[in-house]
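Before relying on records like the one below, remember that each one covers exactly one chain. Contacts with other chains, cofactors or solvent are not represented anywhere in the record.
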Amino acid sequence: MSTAAAIALLAGDRKDPRYPATPDDELRAYTALALALEELGPRITKHTTSPTDAAYFVQIVERAHRSIGFAQLSATGLAQRTLIHELSVDTWVGINRCLADPPAYIAGTIDVPEAPTTPPKGRTTFKNTVEFLQNTFHISFFEARDRVQAATRLFPGTDVHGIEHPPQFPLLAEALAGGKASPQQLADAAKKLVRLQPEIKQYPNSDELAAQLESQVAESVREQDPRTTNRLFSAIEVALAGGVEEPSEEVLRARLGIFCRGTKDGLAEFILRTRAADAEALLALFAQMDNPRTKAGDRDALLRQAGNIWNGSNGSNGSNGSNGSMRSPEADASDAGNRTPSGSAPSLPDYPDFLVDPATGLPMTDPAEANKLTLEPVPTEANVLEAMNNTDYGSDGLTPPQRHLQGLMNLIKTNGKAANGTKTAGLPSPEIFIITTLAELEGKAAQSGITLHGQKYTPAELRHALCIGGAIPITMNGEGRILDLGTAQRFFPEYMRKAILAVYGGCIFPGCTVPPEHCEIDHDEEAAKGGPTEINGGRPFCSGHHHAKHTGQIRVVRDTDGLFSVILPEFMDPEQKPRRNTYWRQPPAAPPLF
């Protein structure tokens, strides 16, 4: 059956064979086919017993899946192009009416609302297509963003000047349109090629090189499994990195800096990339810490500073089982200057940090071996890296990476202040706020506190943080309420702002991922009408959702536990339930069923 015949059969031809199918007819026919597929799939699975029929079914379903994946991305591109995020609330209510009763829409008894003829006035319902996808389909911001970006890369588009342009990756787009590969794998391949653009543009023949690499990647996605394609990307990255001596400004912009990879299994992961000159400063810092004859490398002090962070809550380490009292880095450093470091002989001369053992890359400690040192052999990069990244415990109970991290953390915890207490320009002063309860402070809870940025503390880590004086606790009662510090100020002072952000984590709009540093504090009772400026009367919003609250698009209510929740627009949440943003703060765990 041809597409035209299917449209006429499913949506009707208005009893006139010459009647041309309209976009509305095509949409009604697509709705009818979608309903039929939803019903046919389970029926075939239930009634089919033949292995040959099953083999055919699984392959035709895969073809349909790829076709639907193509349609999903093309629909995303259409949503982006037609600015659906600017539709009014009333229009969305009419659209949802058709979605709630597809048979009536197919029969033509109800219609999709007419497209607006004038630009919207005031704040739009959604900020952009990404926010529409995120809030309508309850997907993460990153999934919504990747979907919009994939549609931009794999479909033709129009620039800000109204000039049409082809897909950014035409070969991947061709494979997508032809159903030659998984839409998700093609979208991932396009995303990785975009990340390689800064490295590719360093070459004089960058356009030709980009086309050649896309051809290799497109063939791999069509013919090979994802693992092989990932290996191809790894090989491309190595080849591109080895072809230039100095990274370009675009490469530095995309790759230079400290990148947070998130927290998993209780460990936060960062990727730190520096210029070679800056790397030398870090390597010099590590060399000082690896030398037990220096204050920075004092083994006993480092072990006490590391405390129980690495090896459990009782303060013992996995190497020698020694226990150290929790003390500040400053006190340990002071004591280190008044005694002989453990495991080192006072008669040893102070060798410079660059005198290292060629076999291990570690500082020299034996005078006889130091006297034999010549310019050859020079330690290779592999030897140095192996020593730096070695995960065996040293005599101090720490691995080299742990020791290096401890030195970096000691520098960070100086809080950017000189000895006279004044701050240093260009050096941040990080403050750690830990939200905890009285029961947690008394050691009666398994989980003991959470930081402003969502990092969870164990009971031992909480005691350690409070003992060394490097953290500020905010103690709450069992209902999540903290001490009221109301004042007559119009704007929330910094200490109130930090306390409010400590309670909610970030913007309270469900699913919003705007971090706390970019949030604004909104009054429960408007300050212009005499509302007090107090901690329990404030709630954080990002700028966009703050405006949505003041324009009446969302409502805020105080929940039964005293904290604030959001009621979404009716077309987004017909149940009109108070909802929380679980991205920043998870609700209390449900009681066990048995």
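The first helix runs from residue 3 to 11.
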